[in-house]
Amino acid sequence: MASQRKFFVGGNWKMNGTKSSIDGIVKFLNESCVDDKVEVVVAPPAIYLDYTRQAVNKKIGVAAQNCYKVASGAFTGDNSTAMIKDVGCEWVILGHSERRNVFGESDELVGEKVKHALEAGLQVIPCIGEKLEEREAGKTEEVVYRQMKAIIGNVTDWSRVVIAYEPVWAIGTGKTATPEQAQEVHDKLRKWLSANVTADVANSVRIIYGGSVSAGNCKDLGTKPDIDGFLVGGASLKPDFITIVKARS
Ligand code: PGA
Questions:
Q1: 166 Cβ closer than 6 Å to some ligand 1 atom
Q2: Catalytic residues
Q3: What CATH number does the domain located at 2-245 have?
Q4: What is the distance in A from the centroid of ligand 1 to the CA of 96?
Q5: pLDDT (tens digit, 9 = 90+) per residue, 142-190?
Q6: Domain map of the chain by residue range?
Q7: How many whole angstroms separate alpha carbon 52 and alpha carbon 165?
Q8: Which pTM does this prediction carry?
């Protein structure tokens, strides 16, 4: 039942922000987004993880937007799970469509990162989702099941996983999936998890929706039974995020 899964709203700031703009976001987060009924996590750029973690209320989680698959070493430009934890952050987003499509991350690499991040003790938000041409070719299920397959074998503790379904055609485009389109995929994912992992995992894991979520559409999406929250990009930089956090209230 949807009601047993705690509503989860993530704010993915992507490659946006300055110390001064983060001060403004932190202000509205600390004033309005601390609610025990909703789990709120924000994902600043890596360079601002420490700054954000120190400023934001402890009830709000802080996530990295990515990390590498090993603990340390000669990997210029990358960040490790140990560093994320060292600055007090608890979460990492993995396999975001921009990582997959702009930076060429494969299903296999995303799976390896999921394994490593869970072993390191972080909570993870693996992202999946089809491109427009895949949806139009009737391949949505095939794509999301393939992406999920690369993830499930690497999950050792499902209680630390929140799956984000983000159709690529809806990200940053203003073209939100309709509540029915999103619900349909979430329902299929849950059935697939039941068949391929366990019924318990299928019932308990949170599946959140991402892609042009806004203050205007969050209520209709958030009341669908299999949509357990959101991963919000653009709107997470604005006070609209408060409305989205309260979509179910
Ligand atoms: P958007 O991004 O809300 O700006 O569409 C969502 C995401 O990429 O997580």
A1: yes
A2: 96, 166
A3: 3.20.20.70
A4: 10
A5: 999 999 999 999 999 999 999 999 999 999 898 889 999 999 999 999 9
A6: 2-245
A7: 26
A8: 0.97
